[in-house]
Amino acid sequence: MQIPYYTFTFFFILQNPSQKHKILTLALPKNNPKIQKKMKNLILLFTLLITTISFAQTENQVNREETKTVDEYEKIDQVVIDYDKDVFIAGKVEVNPEYPGGEKAIFVFLENKIKISKEILEQQGSQKVFAEFIIEKNGRLSDIKVLNSKSPELTKEFTKALKAMKWTPAKQNNRIVRSSYMLPFQAK
């Protein structure tokens, strides 16, 4: 009678290239419960060994990683701000942009400058029109976008009135900077 055997072949590649590959073959009988338990433990141990080896790093791999000094990390975290070109958000600067005379003066100015027919006012209804723009360092407005307008004429008049305005620009770190602004307006 022939006894069935567990046959396992293990192939080891050694780290030193001058050494040859090693092959280990195990042949153990299948019908012995003690050997079966030892085989399960051996397979588990071998699996853990292979897993450990495959995730291990050699000293050379660890040393290859670039090491940085504290100063280099601080330079990475620093943001370079171009005070001439960057656009800051109004409300998030040290000194906000403002129109001379404040909010009331803005709306008085716009109501005097915007001349539209009653038809357009009825068409717009009670909806507010919004203008998004950039206040340049010289106080003039650029990149004007009119939002929520139902009439091209209202958009044109609103844009024309905004271009005529001159604001006091925003300041950040005691420097005059460009800033974005959102202005709501109720056409009357």
Could you give the topology of this structure?
Layout: E1 5-12, E2 22-29, H1 33-55, H2 59-64, H3 70-77, E3 87-89, H4 102-113, H5 118-124, E4 129-135, E5 141-147, H6 152-163, E6 170-172, E7 175-185
Parallel strand pairs: 3-7
Antiparallel strand pairs: 1-2, 4-5, 4-7, 6-7
Commentary on this structure:
With 188 residues, this protein is of the alpha+beta class. The protein has two domains: 5-63, no CATH class; 87-185, TolA/TonB C-terminal domain, CATH 3.30.2420. It is 36% helix and 25% strand. The chain is built from six helices and seven strands; from the N terminus they run E-E-H-H-H-E-H-H-E-E-H-E-E. The chain has helices spanning 33-55, 59-64, 70-77, 102-113, 118-124, 152-163, and strands spanning 5-12, 22-29, 87-89, 129-135, 141-147, 170-172, 175-185. Strands 3, 4, 5, 6 and 7 form a five-stranded mixed sheet that branches. The protein has a two-stranded antiparallel ribbon with strand order 1-2. The protein starts with a strand and ends with a strand.
